Amino acid sequence: QVQLVESGGGLVQAGGSLRLSCAASGRAFSTLLLGWFRQAPGKEREFVAELAWSSRPSYADSVKGRFTISGDNVENTVYLQMNNLKPEDTADYYCAARTSILRPYNYWGRGTQVTVSS
Predict the structure, then answer these.
(1) Which of 19, 24, 112, 28 is nearest to 70 (CA)?
(2) In 8-87, which residue ranges form alpha helices assigned H by DSSP?
(3) Would you tell me how many other CB atoms lie within 10 Å of the CB of residue 81?
(4) Eight-state DSSP code of residue 62
(5) Bridge-partner residues for 78, per DSSP?
(6) Does position 83 have pLDDT exceeding 80, yes or no?
(7) pLDDT of 54 over the 90 cut
(8) Nearest to 103 by CA among 23, 6, 35, 57
(9) Under 8 Å between Cβ of 71 and 54
(10) Helices within the chain (DSSP H only)
């Protein structure tokens, strides 16, 4: 049983930064792989980044060099630092978790909205 709660979304101008947070309860981060997804209006949900405690983070090509995923295993919180934001980053951002790299994401937060103005 895992509950994920996102926060940190908001309105920002292009070129600005935001940091999203995802607080987990019910299970330690050390037993989970944590990721961020986003869904823009009229588009399918897409992968953004994943943090695995035993390997390097992975990123979608569209955010490489701009976004950084990190985690605090003491606070059971995963972050997504978003720099040099672009209007195309506008989306609802979701925190997700899975128990193995071989399994699909099966725990999801409710999302936090990010709007980037030009």
Answers:
(1) 19
(2) none
(3) 15
(4) T
(5) 22, 71
(6) yes
(7) no
(8) 35
(9) no
(10) none
